[in-house]
Amino acid sequence: MANPSLPDEFAGALDAAGSRLGPFQHRVTWFPTIGSTNDLAMTSAASGAPEGTTIVADEQTAGRGRRGRTWFSPPGSGLYVSVVLRPAAPDVLTPAVTLLTLAAGVALAEGIRAATGLPVNIKWPNDLVIGRRKLAGILAEAVSATGGVQAIVLGFGINIRPAAYPPDLAPRATSLESELGRGVDRGLVLAEALAGLAARYDELRARRFDNILGAWRTLAPGSRGSLVEWATPSGPRHGRTEGIDDTGALLVRTSDAVERIVAGEIVWK
């Protein structure tokens, strides 16, 4: 059951951020435990929840990431958040949805940097990393009805404290406190993440796509010059990254061409 009053560690930081939170300022709901923040946010959006509705949980029992993967969400170890967005203007909707995950990556990286000073980077398409270890992930899902997309639910999970990661995750995961060697204020991280998201979402709605793409490229040094592999119907392909195009597709140079990758699993070498 939702706690109508946020824990002190969050309430104070959100109050201090004030209007920088934009549409999220007065719409944050806290759950000690939940199945999936994205599932609840999608149900709420389908029922008419206003833009800016924000679900925050201390624990998820059925958290999920891209491609149906489980998102490890133990209590007290991270931030598990989903927000409802309604970029409804027809001329804004398509590019805004296309670039929303990239904008969210920029916003979260900037928010974590502001809250902790940690030099977080982005790995295409939707991971935040320190070196080669994953710190956070992003999942955007459309809420559709008659007439098309009605809302986008943007979920993100940030590893705050060290946890007993499952064996398949342990070599690839890290947390803010592990990297910093000190405690981290979860409330400040949440406030700065939402403030960053509000600012970058405003840029999407204003069609300032170059600002978002430029910031993403700066925060994703691995998007140029990295060796990658991906699957195709004819077998695995290899190449070296050459950045992203203006739609957010990853560009990879192979032996005979530059290919655009818009989805799928990329293995970074």
What does this structure look like?
The chain has 269 residues and is an alpha+beta fold. It has 2 domains: 8-219, 2-Layer Sandwich (BirA Bifunctional Protein, domain 2), CATH 3.30.930.10; 223-268, SH3 type barrels. 31% of the residues lie in helices and 29% in strands. The protein is built from 6 helices and 12 strands. The strands form 2 sheets. A 7-stranded mixed β-sheet has the order 1-2-3-7-6-5-4, sandwiched between helices. It has a 5-stranded antiparallel β-sheet with strand order 11-10-9-8-12, with no helix packed on it. Helix 1 (8-17) runs parallel beside helix 5 and helix 3 runs antiparallel to helix 5. It is globular.
**Order of strands across the main sheet:** 1-2-3-7-6-5-4
Number of helices: 6
Q: What are the segments in which pLDDT stays under 50 over at least 5 consecutive residues?
A: none
Judging from the principal axes of the Cα atoms, what is the shape?
globular
Architecture of the largest domain, according to CATH?
2-Layer Sandwich
CATH topology of the largest domain: BirA Bifunctional Protein, domain 2
- What percent of residues adopt helix (DSSP H or I)? 25-40%
| Radius of gyration computed on alpha carbons | 18 Å
Gap between N and C termini = 44 Å
Kindly report the name of the CATH homologous superfamily of the largest domain: Bira Bifunctional Protein, Domain 2
SSE pattern: HEHEEHEEEEHHHEEEEE
